[in-house]
Each structure stands twice: as C-alpha cells, then as structure tokens.
Amino acid sequence: MNGMFRRIRILHIIASWQSGLGNELAAFAERLEPDEFEYEVCTLDLRWSYDAVAYMKLRRTLRRFQPDIVHTWDTSSQLYAALQQGNPKIVAEKRDAAPTGQTPLYRNEKTHRFIASRKMDDCPKTVIIPPSAIPGPFSEPMPAEQLLEALDVPLVEPSGDYYPVLQPQYEPARRNFKAVPPNATPYIIGIVLPLTSEHRILDALWVCETFKHVHLNYHAFFIGEGRAQEECLRYRDRWKLFSRVHFVGGQGRSGWALTSRLLPSFDALLHLSPSAEHSNVILSAMSCGVPVVAVETPKSRQYIVDGISGILIPCEDADKETSGKEASSFYRRTAAKKLLHLLENQELRRSLSKAGKERVAKEFNFDKAVQCRKKLYRDIAR
C-alpha cells in the first residue's frame, strides 16, 4: 500500500476500564474511521504504584504494534508512557483547567522516583481536551412503580426483625428535620459510584438514613461495586434501610449498561465524590434530564451552574481526600437538606432538567471532543 494512504496507528493506554474514562474511551474508539485510523487499547490494571510486569507487557505491545501516536488517558498511563525509550509521539490527555503544554505533575512519591532521573522534556506533553458527555443508548424513563417492579423491589415495607449488626462507630445523630407531606409515588434517588470510602459512599447512605426520619417515600439505588460494599451493607441493615436502599451492583462496561438503563428514571442523582475520575456521570445525568446534587469541586463547578443547571453542595474540604467517616456533620446535613428540597419542589426539578440538557448540548458535546482528538492525531502524524 502506498505510504501516503497508510493508516495512523494509535495506542491508547488507560489504567483501568473501571471508570468514566474507560466508558468514554470505548465510545470514542467506536467513532474512529477504520480506513484512516488503526488503534489498540492497553489497560495497565496495576497491582502496585509501579508494576514492572505491566511495564514489560507495555513494552512488548509497543514493539509489536509500532504506533505513530501513544494516547494516555490518566496520570498512571502517562507515567508508563514517559518511561518508554521509543519514538512514538505521546498525547497526554488532561481535563483540568491548566495551560496548554503543561507537563504532568506526578505527586505519588513511589512513582516519582522512577522518572526523577529523566529529563522533564522526555515526559509527555499535556493536551487539553474539553470534557464531554458520553453518548449512550439510554433507555426511556420508567415510572417509579414500573422501575421497582422490574428490579423486584416491593412497594410495601416488609415486616419482621431486622438483621442485628454491631457497628458502634459512625452512628448517625438525631436530626430535627420536619416531616414532609406524604407522597404516594416514591422518589427514585440514584448514586453511581464505586463503593469505596474515598467516594463518600457512607455519606450518601447517611443522607438516605436522614430521609427515614422525615418519613419520605423514596428508594435509593447504588450502582457500583467496591471494597466497601460489605461495610455499606452492614450499615444499611443496622439503620433499618434495606427496604429503601438497594445495591444493584455493576462495574466497568456492565455498570455502564446498568446505568444507561436506570439513569433516565431517577428523580435525582446524588454525587458526593470529590474525585474527578468518575465525574462524567454528572454529564450523563444532565444529558438525560436528571437533576444533579453534587459536592462542589473544580470539576463539578465546570459542569454545573448552581441553582440553574444543578445544585452544588458547598464544602470546605471538598478538594481533600477525606473518607466518609471524617466528613463534617455540617457537610452531610447540607447534602440532605438540598436533596430533600429538590425532591419536594417539582418545578425546580423541571427547570434543572431543562437547563441541564441545554448546557450539555451546548458546552459538552461529545462529537466536538471527537473531532478535536482526530484533528490532533492528523496534525501530529503529518
């Protein structure tokens, strides 16, 4: 084949599929024209901060595939790309508001020593790619009763004894919220995050426990899996929430399929994670017309205009890596009050739904991000 018509070879490197970036990479790869681009995806699945086995496998992949461009999607993959002694040009994707051309900063001391001896010019240069909502085959919204029936969730609370669980720590304090007017149709609340402490899953469970005291008719669905799942189940049963709070599983691509099915039926999405890694679910909810209540972080401020396209929860330690147990009582109470206000106010939900859809369509269009990446590939390979 004439070299002028040779396809551009791209190797995508990502730490793991179990994130919003993995879903976005899969959706983006489907839009690469096979007559112009040839690509492979390499997932590191690291066991340690620096995994020599993953490094050697990546080197073998580079020698076999011989890519023209290496596209790294997160900090871990940028580190491994920087360690390679090859000619491929590296695109290091970054989502935060940083100057174009800024070199990635590796904060992990265990991994930093492996690149400290290298010149910073050898590290991949950062390319700013605008965030975008991942398009998906979202299902049509279902009424609450139909959704609960499809998931085998009874409308009537079961009678009998609850499971005895001894967990003395992190006991919720009594609250003085006023009881809300009775609502025949249950509200559906969604939490789409890995079940780990850094994503403040216990805080979301605490909010659900608060609604029990105001006699709110609701059901909360946690989509995700993680190492804190057993702990969450113990607290749910101790607080007598197992008839209202449901952990439906789902992780990676299977979790994305479950999210695409359930997300449009939610009355609200509660997102308390300070991490930017899984913040794309906010855009997905907004594109489905689901109002979002999210903790205030640089990423959520970029997506949501408070009170117009969503609701932000102010928190002084939102940028710190604190677990759910260390979160302040004020922070949890604020999250509960804002979500309760949203559920009680139907007009507010409608206005947020409409504004969220319009903002995603205008500011976070996926096709624009796809074209931006393709143009970058062509310019680099030229």
Give short descriptive properties of this protein.
single chain, 382 residues, alpha/beta, Rossmann fold, 2 domains, 6-stranded parallel beta sheet, 5-stranded parallel beta sheet, 13 helices, 11 strands, 14% strand, elongated
Description:
The protein has 13 helices and eleven strands. It has 382 residues and is α/β, with parallel strands linked by helices. It folds into two domains: 3-132 and 365-381, 3-Layer(aba) Sandwich (Rossmann fold), CATH 3.40.50; 144-363, Glycogen Phosphorylase B (Rossmann fold, 3-Layer(aba) Sandwich). The longest helix is centred in the last third of the chain and has 18 residues, at 346-363.
How many domains is the backbone divided into? 2
Structural class computed from helices and strand pairing: alpha/beta
Helical amount: 25-40%
End-to-end CA span:
18 Å
Radius of gyration: 23 Å
For this structure, what is the CATH class of the largest domain? Alpha Beta
Strand order of the largest sheet: 8-7-6-9-10-11
Shape: elongated
Number of strands: 11
Low-confidence stretches: 96-120, 158-171, 317-327
Residue-averaged pLDDT: 78
CATH architecture of the largest domain: 3-Layer(aba) Sandwich
Q: Give the CATH superfamily of the largest domain.
A: Glycogen Phosphorylase B
**Beta-strand proportion:** 5-15%
